[in-house]
Each structure stands twice: as structure tokens, then as C-alpha cells.
Write a structure and sequence with these properties.
By secondary structure, this protein is of the alpha+beta class. Helices cover about 45% and strands about 25% of the residues. The strands form two sheets. A three-stranded mixed beta sheet has the order 1-2-3, with helices on both faces. A three-stranded antiparallel beta sheet has the order 4-6-5, with helices on one face. The longest helix is centred in the middle third of the chain and has 23 residues, at about 80-100. The protein is elongated.
């Protein structure tokens, strides 16, 4: 299965003009993680990572047509998600500390689902805080509250 996913990703990238792609794939906790390395990945990652989830969705759809049952697939490009995750964890801890200290509700700016998930998971470690996603679509955001 793994080599088929790598082939699908490589073929798609080649057709998009990303001929220098290196793909490393591994299975972690029942999910297939594909790390793609490119010399110039800006066009595939997008501003603030906006294109990466779209690319991942396309790859997942293609994989689902060729592999049954379709595996859960996570794609990262040049460690963007990993670096973004580290930044978001630090941000979430700062927000958590501020909400704890001030005992006030904080509404965060709208963010993509990946970012919200990281913030929710990070703040779940704070037993005296609660988080909730609010809003719709691109305007979905997190509310952080002190736990009563």
C-alpha cells in the first residue's frame, strides 16, 4: 500500500511541475504520514498554509479511488505542519496562562481546523480552562474560558 500512495503523490506532483519532490512515508498509529520535501514549496503550502489542506484533500480523494479501504492520510510539506504545530502550542500555552491570570474569556482569531485542533488539544492539559469552537466556515474561532 505505501508504495502505491507514494507513487500517487509523486505522479500528481510531477504533473503539477514539482519534479524535485522527495517523499517519505510511514505508518503511525494507524495513519499513513507522507512527508514531502521540495526546493520551493511556497506554491504548494500557500499563505499561512492555506493550500496544503486542499492538496491533502485531493490526494486523499485520489488514494480513495485506488486503495480500498482508504487509509487515513496526513501530508506534510517541508515540515510545515510540524513547525506550525510547535508555534501554535506555544501560542495556546500563552493564551492559557493569560486566561488563567486574568480570569477573563478570550476569543481567538478565526483559524483553520488543523490550527484549532492543536489549540484545543494543547489547552486540554489545562484542567482549569475550557475551549469551544464557535462560528461558521472560514470564520470559525476558539473561545477560551476559565473553568468555573
Amino acid at each position: 500500500m505505501s508504495t502505491k500512495i507514494t507513487y500517487i503523490i509523486k505522479d500528481l506532483l510531477d504533473n503539477m511541475g514539482f519534479l524535485d519532490a522527495e517523499i517519505e512515508e510511514q505508518e503511525v498509529e494507524g495513519r499513513v504520514k507522507a512527508e514531502i520535501r521540495l526546493k520551493d514549496a511556497r506554491d504548494l503550502i500557500g499563505e499561512r498554509g492555506a493550500i496544503l489542506p486542499l492538496f491533502q484533500h485531493i490526494v486523499r480523494r485520489i488514494v480513495a479511488r485506488h486503495i480500498a479501504p482508504s487509509p487515513m492520510l496526513d501530508i506534510d510539506i517541508n515540515n510545515y505542519k510540524k513547525m506550525r504545530e510547535d508555534v501554535l502550542r506555544d501560542f495556546a500555552r500563552d493564551v492559557g496562562s493569560k486566561v488563567r491570570a486574568e480570569r477573563k474569556v478570550m476569543e481567538l482569531d478565526p483559524m483553520p481546523s488543523f490550527d484549532r485542533r492543536v489549540v484545543h488539544l494543547t489547552l486540554a492539559d489545562f484542567s482549569d480552562l475550557t475551549t469551544e469552537s464557535m462560528g461558521e466556515g472560514d470564520r470559525r474561532y476558539i473561545v477560551v474560558r476559565p473553568y468555573p
